[in-house]
Amino acid sequence: MTKRLNSFVTSANSRDTEFPLNNLPYGVFSQGDHTRCGVAIGDFVLDVAALENQGLIDLGQPLLQSAAWNPVMDAGSDIWDQLRALLIALLSEGSADQGAVEAALYPLAEVQLLMPFTVTEFTDFYAGKNHAINVGTMFRGAENALPPNWLHIPIGYNGRASSVVVSGTDIYRPSGQLKGPDDTLPKFAPSKRFDIELEMGAIVGRPSSDRVSVDQADEMIFGYVILNDWSARDIQAWEYQPLGPFQSKATATTISPWIVTKAALEPFRCETPERDFELLPHLKDTGPMLYDIDLSVTIAPKGSDASEVVRTNYKEMYYSAAQQLAHHTSAGCAMRVGDLLGSGTISGATKESRGSFLELSWGGNEPFTLDTGETRSFIEDFDTLTLQGFAQGSDFKIGFGECTGMLLPAK
Ligand code: MN
């Protein structure tokens, strides 16, 4: 079992910090007038742009001077490894450069976190089996819950990069075309069934121009974020046939502020579940490509404490991000650096592990109770939703920071 690596930053050596030396997630922060790339360590963010300017980080060319991690991704996986090794050396206990590194640390509590990378494209999948069964049962009945293709291909749709926002961004309740079961005609009105989807996002760090294998796809992935695919269920129910979701998913998708690299998650790889059907050769598992990441969702009504309403794990997925990416390229689609792939809603088999309100309240028919005594079927105005995730090591954990957003009334 991998042990915790110790840093001279003492807050990074706690069992409870999300950001030990083993993690080193990549973000973008602003403090005063400056916006730049940073790396989280304990209770601090390290200004890596400053260290590159001083020559303490030398990657052969300046890669840390823009307020996004795309140039590092674009430089290739040898640079990814080189940067991680440099950061571990600079921040380790006994680092020869402790003084200079300390001068580039800012308390996390005093900075603002921004989008960590430029999202070039966004695709969202539907690859959680329990979620697909739950939603399919509600929409089409238990007999037809899983569409016939579901066990053979990771189903997805092309989303909008422009809709992706960083944690902390306020979300406005969308309006759209709604048609209830008793309405003869649709109307344009604020969504009454606005929801979350608890997902992981995989970030493509290497481009491709042709079909790639599952192994090549895994090598192309730079890192992962927590992702909330905000969804308007009433807009979705009316619009989704036959081309899938459109405006119901267009309001916003929130990501956590920190990109946790594939390297940091390496000790937590795990197998995909048993297959009902053998996958076709281009999608077959070639090794453990899911990750054991505990996930949770809390909701805090305005002025109230947060209640935890979901607890699940990324290992519940039926398809890994590498399989989704391989499938994405299978008809010749080119992938770009900064492509973001949403996993699909992650639900476990139990009621508490369902990753959306649609499932938790069973289509709104079974409202659930918060710690405050209030009930919810869907999100109400001024509710704050917070998604979190961490991989648990023997004496450390690897976290992503909060993926949070408050819902404001419709404009
Ligand atoms: Mn989704």
Question: Which fold name fills CATH's third level, the topology of the largest domain?
Answer: Fumarylacetoacetate hydrolase, domain 2
Briefly, what CATH class of the largest domain? Alpha Beta
Percent of residues in beta strands = 25-35%
**CATH 4th-level superfamily of the largest domain:** Fumarylacetoacetase-like, C-terminal domain
Mean pLDDT: 97
Q: What share of residues is helical?
A: 10-25%
Low-confidence stretches: none
Q: Label the structural class.
A: alpha+beta
Small ligands present = manganese (II) ion
Number of discrete helical segments: 10
CATH architecture descriptor text of the largest domain:
Alpha-Beta Complex
Domain count, please report it.
Answer: 2
Shape: globular
Number of strands: 27
Indicate the radius of gyration in whole angstroms: 21 Å
Q: How would you characterize the largest beta sheet?
A: 8 strands, mixed
First and last CA, distance: 51 Å
Structural features, described:
The protein is of the alpha+beta class and 411 residues long. The protein folds into two domains: 10-114, SH3 type barrels (Roll); 122-408, Fumarylacetoacetase-like, C-terminal domain (Fumarylacetoacetate hydrolase, domain 2), CATH 3.90.850.10. The protein is built from ten helices and 27 strands. The strands form seven sheets. Strands 6, 7, 8, 13, 14, 16, 17 and 22 form an eight-stranded mixed sheet that branches. Strands 9, 20, 21, 25, 26 and 27 form a six-stranded mixed sheet that branches. The protein has a five-stranded antiparallel sheet with strand order 4-3-2-1-5. Strand 25 (384-392) and strand 26 (397-399) form a beta hairpin. Helix 6 packs across helix 9 (321-328). The relative contact order is 0.18. Bound molecules: manganese (II) ion. Manganese (II) ion is lined by residues 124, 197, 199, 229, 342, 344-345. Manganese (II) ion binds at residues 124, 197, 199, 229, 342, 344-345.
